[in-house]
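batch job 7 of whatever, protein = Phosphate-binding protein
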Amino acid sequence: MKLNRGRTGALALAGVVALSLTACGSDNPTGSTETTGSDTGSTSSLSGELAGSGASSQESAMEAWRAGFQSANPDVTVSYDPVGSGGGRTAFLDGSVKFAGTDSALDSDELAQAQERCFGAEAVDLPVYISPIAVVFNVEGVAELNLSAETIANIFNGTITNWNDPAIAEANPDATLPDLAITTVHRSDESGTTKNFTDYLSKAGNGAWTAEPSGDWAIEGGESGQGTSGLIQTVQGGQGTIGYADASKAGSLGKVSIQVGDDFVAPSEEGAAAALDVSPRDDTRAEGDIVIDIDRTTTEAGAYPLILASYLVVCQSYDSQDDVDLVKAFATYVASAEGQAASESAAGSAPISDTLRTDVQASIDAITLAS
């Protein structure tokens, strides 16, 4: 699917996902592969190891990026530990990994820390994974529900406690709602998905959500799960449970269609793309640091504003040429049309636009050897 963007610039259990990478021509460490005549083999001179960690929401996409890149890069191994966005940013800032995946961009304190980690240069956030967050539930006999942001907020803040509550019943006249207690499920770890979810509740919930948007769950009560997989397993294992997760991991669980204007919109890559279309960039960031300010209150037809813009975080300088070449090659493949198509197929993400990709590539091209 080819998407055009508007104001965006025309837009698990924690385990190691081992990604074997090969590279392109030795004079072009960007992730592209050139062939001439009957020669279809790689001419890459890249070798070594590249470690990353972070958002569990990116796990399926990382696996797809591995598969697509692996055939061209036999002498490089990339590992990705899906420990969660907070854990990934911490590992990146302390130098344990060369890149991080995060559903929440680096904040001002983290950007300041990154200057030391990046050998005097800046760290940049590159939006490479755009995906809907699904509100998932497990209620026998109910496969889908329509809910407003206000109702969702009141469920997760403990105001609405039963599945046959009038606020739920009014929006779902054809559903047979049981007299059953609601059990909310949240992430137990610091999570960019949680920050995006609570940002949506805060901005679109008509005042029902009063806690500050945060990667750490702020409301007492309910159950919790570690990482995306842990949350999904907890929702699946209960009855009357409700949680939130990257839509690619929802499986057979029921999914909520959220109210946008007068309509209810189900999570989809098309809806995520439409929401991104109407969302501006954060113009307070440094050059090359590309952060999306998602419009959570849009009434654009078909838009699904409960999305995450997930980032690849890299330094703009590294202390070895090998690291420079490996990071540039991997990041280039991830942002490429081929890499984005692989992620779309594996994880249902919305590919970034050509214009946004051009800007992301310019940031990647600016990565240099520290002086």
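notes: The domain at 134-268 is CATH 3.40.190.10 (D-Maltodextrin-Binding Protein; domain 2).
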